[in-house]
Fold each of these.
Amino acid sequence: MARLKVGVLISGRGSNLQALIDACAAPRFPAEIALVIANRADAAGLARAAAAKIPAKVFAHGDFAKRDEFDAVLEATLTEAGCGLVCLAGFMRILGSAFVRRWRDKLINIHPSLLPAFPGLDTHARVIAAGVRFTGCTVHFVREGVDDGPIIVQAAVPVQTGDDADTLAARVLEAEHRAYPLALRLIAEGRVRVESERVIIEGHKAPHGIVVNPAD
Ligand code: GRF
């Protein structure tokens, strides 16, 4: 079966891009990264694309007078590369509603919290300030609201006493690097559908049991 062609949009470090690159390198993985697009020429993730010999393009959003023009270039580039799915991986630019509608249920994002809790920026500092015992990450289909849309995969991560935003971010990032390739695989296998704005996964088994923090 043909592998699903994916476009990955980045703005920075690209560690989630790397997790997707590594997953796609497995011989029977059902997706391939056809293209990486960055909105900043200094995005460190571009070097990861180059090392994996994946075509990459930079479109600096500041070069475009209007959001729609920037989105139109993204759209044309992704379509030309034959992408059937777009993965946002630390892409720090809000996409316009026409783009979001065009890619409905074909555009996914990863966010470092258990959505719908803690959408937006400075997530880990807010998680710590709130005193919650668990946080995690969420891969979701993109809708027009920020960090909003049907949830595909979540991973729970305990908050430890003494965590600061950096130690917590590092623990959550490890979970992100597992969750994003899993979501991509499930979609590429054709096992994910959206019904009434909830995701149904064919043949999916949820983990058993209850996890308690602090451990008892
Ligand atoms: C990740 O924490 C992701 O959840 C968020 O932005 C960060 C990107 O990190 N949306 P990286 O560029 O993938 O390393």
Note: The longest helix spans residues 165-188.
Amino acid sequence: MIDGKKVLFSGMQATGSLTLGNYMGALKNWLTLCEEYECFYSVVDLHSITVRQEPAELRKRARNLLTLYIAAGLDPVKNCLYYQSHVSGHCELSWILNCFTYMGELNRMTQFKDKAAKHADNINAGLFTYPVLMAADILLYQADVVPVGKDQLQHLEITRDIAQRFNAIYGDVFTVPEPYIGKTGASIKSLQAPEKKMSKSDENPNASIYLMDDPDTIMRKFKRAVTDSEAQVRYRPEQPGICNLINIYSVCTGKSPEEVEKEFDGRGYGDFKTAVGEAVVSVLKPLQERYADLSRNKDYIDSVIKNNAEKANHYATKTLRKVQKKVGFPERIR
Ligand code: TYM
């Protein structure tokens, strides 16, 4: 609890361009929860170097992502928006938690298996212990709730296991966090292969809608989206492409999948795809405009970076000192 409010933590990597999946699975929910909770939203640059990055590019993308958080509607006075690398407590807690995490647990992580297969030439220890750093992110702020897409659920589970294990030894040190998964946007799929998630790193640019895509590109990508030969807008597992488009339309319009089915009853896929494209454009256009304005305001973004890093450090240090004491590190002499 901070000032009587429950705490929320979440983060995104600044690698690649953000997709509609990132927006619908995470960012959109962040916006609806930010009044109710004391929120920490991190640009998780420490996680990014588990795969090779071009330094100047990573720096640029990290700043762009932080700017995008604000453009999406997160007020940096009410929400703590900061770079993970500016708060050394993440690494310090991560080390301690490494000593309370089993190799067997980490071996089971599907994201590790996927990434190791993709980057076979660089299966580094950081990639393996990635979920422990993620646990440190969350536990450092004593987060009650963590809004994420479905692909991060396994990492939330291990975070809860680590917290419970630590608490069982040392008493109630950590809040055990709950995941928050949205109803319709939790797993946005590729437009070209709807059995796969929409991903920043997809080689086929038509598979993903990027948040900075212009309206024509968005409309074109939806027109090309893979569907099926059923010719009916129905929300059922046999039609994964259509289900995905219904989910996207639902998130944009606030309509339930059943309402979407009714709206498009008897109408063709062409009509439906156009409507989905237009709905997405109407969500992304204002975001892109605010982003362009904010990007020009260097001093403002700099002040957000500075003030919020201080705030995050303040709360992180509180937890870290408590944990250091519990595990038996000597007290600091003032
Ligand atoms: P990242 O950067 O891959 O993704 C950021 C958020 O977007 C969600 N997401 C999706 N949701 C629905 N459909 C999709 N196709 C889709 N693709 C991505 C992700 O679930 C995530 O919520 N390890 C994390 C970042 C992280 C983090 C944390 C998150 C680091 N520490 C602590 C929460 C709490 C990651 O790489 O997310």
Note: The chain has two domains: 6-181+298-327, 215-293.
